[in-house]
Amino acid sequence: MNFSLLVYAAPHSRQAAETAYRFAVAALAQGHGIHRVFFYGDGVHNGSALASPPQDECDLPARWQALAKEHELDLVVCIAAAVRRGVLDANEARRYEKPGHNLREGFELSGLGQLAEAAIHSDRLITFGA
Amino acid sequence: MNFSLLVYAAPHSRQAAETAYRFAVAALAQGHGIHRVFFYGDGVHNGSALASPPQDECDLPARWQALAKEHELDLVVCIAAAVRRGVLDANEARRYEKPGHNLREGFELSGLGQLAEAAIHSDRLITFGA
Amino acid sequence: MSHSKTFLIISRRPPYGSSHARDALDTALTTAVFEQPVAMLFQGDGVLQLLKGQEPAAVRQKNLGATLSALPMYDIENLYACADALAQRGLTQDDLILPVQPLDRAGIAALIRNHDVVLNF
Amino acid sequence: MSHSKTFLIISRRPPYGSSHARDALDTALTTAVFEQPVAMLFQGDGVLQLLKGQEPAAVRQKNLGATLSALPMYDIENLYACADALAQRGLTQDDLILPVQPLDRAGIAALIRNHDVVLNF
Amino acid sequence: MTLHTLNRPPSDRALLDDCIAALVADDTLLLLEDGVYCALAGLELPAGVRCVALAADVAARGIGDRLATGIEVVDDIGFVELCCHHSRVASWF
Amino acid sequence: MTLHTLNRPPSDRALLDDCIAALVADDTLLLLEDGVYCALAGLELPAGVRCVALAADVAARGIGDRLATGIEVVDDIGFVELCCHHSRVASWF
């Protein structure tokens, strides 16, 4: 089966982001596919390259990145939600004339249409909300 | 009268951050002092240097910065809450070996003790929560 | 079309206090642009989005009600509201910025069952 | 001391689902380190933080209950819980990781009135 | 004298109940953000408690004509003044 | 057949009521995160609705011995399987 995930919660602030990650791990372990993970609302902070949790806490952005690398996951961060909240890739940093960028490698910024596309082309879309 | 503000909500996601800003403007306009604005929890995102809202939306990090410059406000972002959430100054970026930093000029990272100190040395502490 | 699904967006939050209502609306509009059939259900505090007379300039936000009233122009014409939520808040059609079909519990359950994708905000 | 105030931290959220409970606790501990008198009130879902037997390793979080049980060691000994919140959830002192004083409505109102600084989480 | 602020709608019944339970005579309850929806129905408050709603939030939500009787509207300046005239501020959210 | 997930405690009564109202026979209600506290009291669900709670969240909150009768516990693998066995997933939060 082919899943897509909508992650609508930030790490640390809400548990939902961690639940989504565990779901992704479990689904992949059972041999299912993950068409896309779409990060929306405060969920855009899952794509932070700068998040630096203490060593005894879960580093979700790093875990998503590692999982994506291992399984070639499509991690898409909603561009409109992200730029408002200060999550930028190099392109957007240039566009808004900002001194740096902080989107983690393995994530990409794209439009909300990618959520609709994911829902259309997956067997199930599961929302992890807050 | 001398106020301190505790801002526990991120811009865009929750209205409380904007309410806090309006309160600060109103208090200063009436001639009151603001001892400190302390940003905690998701409120740390008020200190983002990269937030890039559309031009017809309120850019709260920029407004806080301008208000602080005009009135010499002490804008303190809780360091523990901030580094978890990916809001770093140059020092923390070095400490965590991150490629960049994104704390806006005019804000500073410091410990939760600054909240206690603010409460002790202000006439009133007002929380803007979510 | 093999690659078409029906979407139901359930919007449960009041306007302005958080970004949920705006995000629900943006998702509905984007999905409609993708030419998927979209229905919206306003439930709980979400019905408060439909109130006439919103003036959010003082809180520096865009008028959500004005955008909502444009939904039919985007071919989002299946607009529903929880009848209980309207009644609990003393709201009738005259109070609302655009016409919505009130649904009872059974109607809402059927609405969910009749859509391929359900997105809650 | 002229520069001393009494703090009341009201913790209303359940553990783990959000960072509120952890932030309330960190604020209480930090304030105690600053040698200010700190009381904590667990109200609403906040009383669920006090339940014995928490094992949050599976959700990759630290044990909040274990930290709470250390509060008296930080000289935070004025620990209160809303009696109604405990009763509604069927909780008695035996279910809790540390002793707390149950307070009724009037007791909670008086507690707020008797502290200089009130911080809600 | 405590100023209590509340920023959640009345559907968050547990919060509203706890907030109201904490009110005593000479306290003021300030409704703001989504909390102004609590001003639509009459709230049963203890005697001697004043209830006010923040003007910008009332206008934003289009409920200026729907407030229950006895609820005053204050602007941001009024909010600041209320903070001055009470000994502490408790925020319910 | 819909899988409904709920991640808020029962004090969010308005959400729980709307979620329960949406359940019909052959649906499953999965309680997760703070939603597992809804498993402490018995929920009045329509006939033919299964109610399950996520194991990691039950353990985290120390409520394994307190679940109402009739509520099953599933692990993350079980969550994935539930998604497969229902035609859609509605998330209440």
From TrEMBL, chains A, B:
InterPro entries, A to Z: DsrEFH-like, Sulphur_relay_DsrE/F-like, Sulphur_relay_TusD/DsrE
Main location, first listed in the record: cytoplasm
One BP term from GO: tRNA wobble position uridine thiolation
Entries under Gene3D superfamilies matching the protein: DsrEFH-like
Listed GO MF terms: sulfur carrier activity; sulfurtransferase activity
Keyword terms, alphabetized: Cytoplasm, Transferase
Subcellular location: Cytoplasm
GO cellular component: sulfurtransferase complex
NCBIfam families: PRK00207.1 (NF001237), sulf_tusD_dsrE (TIGR03012)
Family to which this protein belongs: Belongs to the DsrE/TusD family.
Protein name per UniProt: Sulfurtransferase TusD
Organism the protein comes from: Marinobacterium nitratireducens
UniProtKB/TrEMBL annotation, chains C, D:
Superkingdom classification of source: Bacteria
Coiled coil: none
Pfam families the record matches: DsrE
Alphabetized InterPro entries for the sequence: DsrEFH-like, Sulphur_relay_DsrE/F-like, Sulphur_relay_TusC/DsrF
Family: Belongs to the DsrF/TusC family.
Database matches in PANTHER family: PROTEIN TUSC
Protein name: Sulfurtransferase TusC
From TrEMBL, chains E, F:
Matches recorded under Pfam families: DsrH
GO cellular component, as recorded: sulfurtransferase complex
GO biological process, one term: tRNA wobble position uridine thiolation
UniProt protein name: Sulfurtransferase complex subunit TusB
Originating species: Marinobacterium nitratireducens
